[in-house]
Each structure stands twice: as C-alpha cells, then as structure tokens.
Amino acid sequence: xxxxxxxVLFEYVEGSSPIASExxxxxxxxxxxxxxxxxxxxxxAAMGDSDVWQTPSPAxxxxxxLDVVAFxxxxxxxxxxxxxxxxxxxxGPSSWWAQRLRKAEGAFTAGMVKQLLERMRAMLGTxxxxxxxxxxxxxxxxxxxxxxxxxxxxxxxxRAQAFRDHAFVLSFMGRYPEALxxxxxxxxxxxxxxxxxxxxxxxxxxxxxxxxxxDRNDEAVALTREAAETFLRFGDAARYVNARITxxxxxxxxxxxxxxxxxxxxxENNPALDELGAAQLLYNIAICHGELRHPEVAAEYLxxxxxxxxxxxxxxxxxxxxxxxxxxxxxxxxxxxxxxxxRQARREFExxxxxxxxxxxxxxxxxxxxxxxxTEDVAAICRDLIARFTKAGMTSRAVTALSFLRxxxxxxxxxxxxxxxxxxxxxxxxxxxPRLYAQPADRFGD
Length: 446
Prior knowledge:
mainly alpha; elongated; Serine Threonine Protein Phosphatase 5, Tetratricopeptide repeat
C-alpha cells in the first residue's frame, strides 16, 4: 500500500490540504498513515503549549523539531525494513511465522509492529486465523520495545494498538471473553498517553462490537455514540460514518430493524465510504429488507454486493452474502435456486472454521431440503451438526435441540417449521452467536 509523505499529511492535519477528502479516505484504511497523522497532531498540540516556548533555553523548540525530524527518518527506515521482512516471514502456514520472525535480524522494532497490524487488515477478509496470528506477533514484538528507545509514549501507544487490533480479530472470530480482555488492556494503555481521546474512541468502538454479542447492548450503544461524537469533533468523516454504521448494528441487534434500516439507508451514498464500506452497507440494507419480509428487495441488494466482495477478495463477507441470497430466494419460493447458494455457503464457512455460521446455514438448508422431500440429506445434516457442536464444546442446549430434531426425523414427524424453530432457538443462544451469518457486517474503520 502506498503512503503519503510527511509534508502532505502535515498539511492535512493543519487543515490546508487541497486533497483532504482523498487523504481522509486513505488514512481510514492505512495504519501507517493514521499513525503519522496522530504524530503530527501531537506535534501541533505540543507547539501550541506555552511551556514549550517559555523554556529558559531559546534553543529548545528548535531541538524539539530536530528530534522529531530525526525520529521520522528512523521510523521510515524501520518501516521499510519491516515491509521487506514481512514479505519473507508471512508466507506459508501461519504456524511458521513466529519462528521466522524470531530468527530475522532487526525484526523487533516499532516498524515491525506497524507492518504486522497493516498486513492483518488485508488478511482478515480471507483468513481470520492468519489475521489473528499477525496481531499475536505484533503484540510479541510490541512487548519487547523499550520505552527509552522511542520518544515520549510511542512504544506504549504501539502496544495499545496491537492489543486493540488483536481484540478486534478475536471478536471477529467469536472469541468474546478474550477479545474484551485485550480491549480493556488497550484502553488502560491508551489512558497513559497524552491526548488519548481519539484513540480511546477507537477502542470504544471495538469494545462496543464485543459487548453487543455478550448481551450488553445498552453499553455497546452508548460507547458507539460517544465514539461517533469524538470522530466528528476530530473531523474524521470516515470513522464517523463507521460509527453510525455500527449504531445501526446495535439497533438491529435490539430488533429495531426499521430504525437500523433508516440509519444505513441515510449513509448509502456517503462520500466517506470506500469500496469495502459501500459493499458492506449494501449487505446490511439487504439483511434488513430480508427481516422486514421484502425478499425481492433483499435479493436485489445482494446481487449488487456479492460481486463487489468477490472483486475485493473478501471471502467471509462474500460467503455471508451467498447465505443471505439463499435465504432470500427460499423466501420467495425459488427453492431450487436457493439450495446451491446454501450448500456452497455452508461449505465455505466450514473451510473458514466458522462453526456457528456454518451450522445456521446448514439448518436453513435442511429446512429447504425437507420442504422438497429430501429427508435423507436432512438427517445427515443433523448428525453432522451434533458432532461438530459437541467437538466445539458448544452448549448442551444446542446439542439437545439438534438431537430432538434428529429424533423427529427418525419417526417421520419433522417439518420445515420445526427446523425453523430449532434454527431460531440456536440463533438466540449467546454461546451460538459468533458472527451469525444473518448479522450485519461491521467495519473496524482502520
């Protein structure tokens, strides 16, 4: 990913850039440039502090600037070296990466932390497991950084960023208790650095994404709104839009589907959305229309976003769209068209190791198959789900519900409505809610 130079970013921060909207869009997806913007903001804040200019030594302000320039050059060299090393380290199975990193000369730098977090964003949509491995390595490197080797609280902030990003990937994979623990650790670290409001808002958004999945929706909504207000105050339109999108997620989670649809529809043509954000917003709108029993409209939106996710290489989102398309087609009676979508979505979720998502799609597939009289396939699906849920250590209530369905099939008393009832039951179990396929897409906004 190409980056803007320091002079261009400095003009953006001080408000004189002629391409502010372009930079704003780039910064919202680039950790490197976002960090540079944050550094420039701190410099400007420091230069506005009267204590800096009223020091007994008139040479101090000049020395401060020289120190900043010197560190910028050092950081640039670290980033360039880390980018080369990452190309070598992050290949093959992720289980090999840690050993390669530890053997690489000059790998344990701040630049390596930044590069690993940037690479995570590219991995998240195609391999959450690899993305998690990247953030784990970023934490390992960040924990070795000596505070005395970097100016001010630079190392502390990098460590906090690594914890924050690790928390987000864990939440993406449905590992909520771990995710919340790392998000809280990130918050405590950010509270130790100067001018933490903006970074705390970003952590608040991550915490909100986690809290909504562990039945703390009111807290999640409050955090999201606070974050949105902070982003607006700092003039970050991209993250403001992201927070509004997340607010819609909270409303959807609280069953206020009409309200969520209103929020998302108001953002559909917002210029702060990038290609990925626009596609995810289309998906969210489609899901709302599906919930409101407008399957034809839902299918129209899904037809638009599936190829966009495919083009962007976003495997997880594309699979969710495919599953939702199968559901929409089934809802309008096009069951023969729906079955291939559902089968493929189930297979792809299993390949991604997203157990709960695969299970819920499998149950929807079972409902459609039973309606078409294909009972043998339905029984096989139930057996497979019971085995997978038991192996994954999911709740006994989920296994009991599936066992009940299997027995009903055995005695010829299973109906599509019974499968739908079990499907709805599993969706409402807190332990079975890691990234349900029918839930709206979230945006981390980094």
